[in-house]
Amino acid sequence: MKKIALTFSALFFTLISFSQGIAVQGLARDANNTARTNASVPLTFEIYYLNSSNNPVDIYSSTSTLQTDAFGVFSHVINLPNTTETQFSNHELYLKIKEGATEISNEVFKRVPLAYAASNGVPTGSIMPFIGTAAPAGWVLCDGGAIPIDSNTLTLRTLLGSANAPNLQGMFLRGTGTSPVNSQDGPALKTTQQDANKSHSHAKGSLATSNAGAHSHNLFIRKHWRSFDGDSGTPIPYSEGGDYSSNLPTDTEPAHSHSITGSTANQGTESRPVNYGVNYIIKL
């Protein structure tokens, strides 16, 4: 029976990018170790990871009939769906290649140091600002919407303890725990914290009433008199007449001020710094 005999030096596969896929190249040989030139070779490509019980969990499988060249070499690009991107971040994945029931190769994906440290960008549950209105592949908007329920989103739903993304519309992010700077507490993990203003008071500052209050008033009194009968000494009732007396001032009130009561006008409904609008997105 014909087979593909592959050694480490004869099979190469690499993840180019999720938009371009996984490039696979190998040398097909028959049972006599002779190159299978200009031949059609049906190959099945399976990508999987091992769960906590060490059992394989398939996330992708496809079969393609490939054409070898004059030297028996074949090349193929596995076009991955965007949903598998998160699996590279969350699991150690394997690529199995088979011809029919015959296993040709079963290798773990190797990562270069930078890619390994980056974990394909960011780990599941990472939140970042985004200026688009639709989340890119491998992310969802933090708008409280439902997270797709499939094997690719299980890790995020487990982290959140919810089937919905957090709703961060109109919110700022703050670290949980207690600040080492001012000993103030942030919100508990995955909870919100209500807005508040620190208790405080204000000095009067430059508020004052005008002290231009010095003034006086003129007093006007009508002249009147009372006479007596010359013979009997009996008083005669008051009679009025003559001019008003004028220019009789009251005491002058010196310049003075007054206490202020009440409060300043309301300036708004919240306290906020200068800000710029974005959407928050969370990694699947």
Would you mind describing this structure in some detail?
By secondary structure, this protein is mainly β. Helices cover 7% and strands 33% of the residues. It contains three helices and twelve strands, in the order E-E-E-E-E-H-E-E-H-E-E-H-E-E-E. The protein has a four-stranded antiparallel sheet, with no helix packed on it. The longest helix has 7 residues, at 154-160. The chain is rod-shaped and about 135 Å long. The model is unreliable at 1-10 and 114-119 (pLDDT under 50).
Query: Which oligomerization state do the chains in this entry correspond to?
Result: single chain
Per DSSP, what share of the residues sits in E-state strands of 2 or more residues?
Answer: 25-35%
Q: Which residue ranges are poorly predicted, with pLDDT under 50 across at least 5 consecutive positions?
A: 1-10, 114-119
Main beta-sheet strand count, sense and barrel state: 4 strands, antiparallel
Structural class by sheet pairing and helices: mainly beta
Strand order of the largest sheet: 4-3-6-7
**Tell me, what is the CATH class of the largest domain?**
Mainly Beta
The end-to-end span amounts to: 45 Å
Q: Mind telling me which CATH architecture of the largest domain this is?
A: Sandwich
Number of helices: 3
- Topology pattern, helix = H, strand = E: EEEEEHEEHEEHEEE
- Cα shape: rod-shaped
Overall helicity:
under 10%
Number of domains: 3
Query: Total strand count, please?
Result: 12
Cα-atom radius of gyration:
45 Å
